[in-house]
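Handoff note, outgoing to incoming analyst
You'll be picking up this chain. Sequence as last confirmed:
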Amino acid sequence: MRAAVVTSFGTPPTCQDFPVPAPGTPDEVLVDVVAVGLHPRVRSQADGSHYTESAELPFVPGIDGVGRAPDGRLRYFVLPDTAMGALAERTVVDLRRSVVLPDDVDPVLVAAGMNPAMSAWIALRRRIEFTAGQDVLVLGATGNAGRLAVQVARHLGAGRVVAAGRDPGRLATLPDLGADVAVPLADVGTAGADVDVVLDYVWGEPTAEAMREIVTHRGDRARPLTWIEIGSVAGRTASLPSAALRAARLQLVGSGQGSVPTRDIVAELPALAAEVGRGTFRIDTRTVPLEDVEAAWKDDGDDRRVVIVP
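Most recent structure output, in case you need it:
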């Protein structure tokens, strides 16, 4: 079969022949892959930089996707960290880590949206005790996952959504996606001073500066503030001000593989897949064929690229 194969960390995968995998347990089936999202998580898997990565070369990347099972039904699936990922004509899926999709669903939309939407959905549904009416700040809201985080927070009942990011053009579009306020990172201290939850896709020094500014401008420092670290586009480390942790009722947590049990993530798949599949969230997509995966890998466009398998 044809597959996107990583033969060297740090270089794009190329489409080449790869052995067809075989199910190893009664819960596993071999599916025909239909669509796979090229998420940042897939890129970090392929270059060996993700914190969970332990794959040996060569391997097929891809952590999730949409495939057609032997019974003919479409399924959205999430794969474990193995050498046989989703970017192939066929892959092995554990039925317990998948959800059946309606026959009329757009598989490209599901493949594009589930992974980035899941980051905010899981953070708010499983990592903390989020309640409707709480105010949310999305730090890094101009990225694909951040744009979806704005929509997810609004969908889950946030009282006020503050969006902060770097790209002025994309910031201007965020009110249409559910943000009450959209500001550059430099203004996050005043705009986000009194939120209850921060969804942080940035980290690095911008997060350290945002934390200083928010605590400084906070009207009631005894009001709980939960800061959820999700992504690190601005840096893997941050010099956090110790005073921020002492001067305000600030709780810092992370959300991702490990901090959220797999069973909790799987339990959220049906509800999230239903919302993504019915078009609840606006997702900009662009499709590329599996044979062109190397060129798509090098393309840094703003839209969500989805590999489709004939």
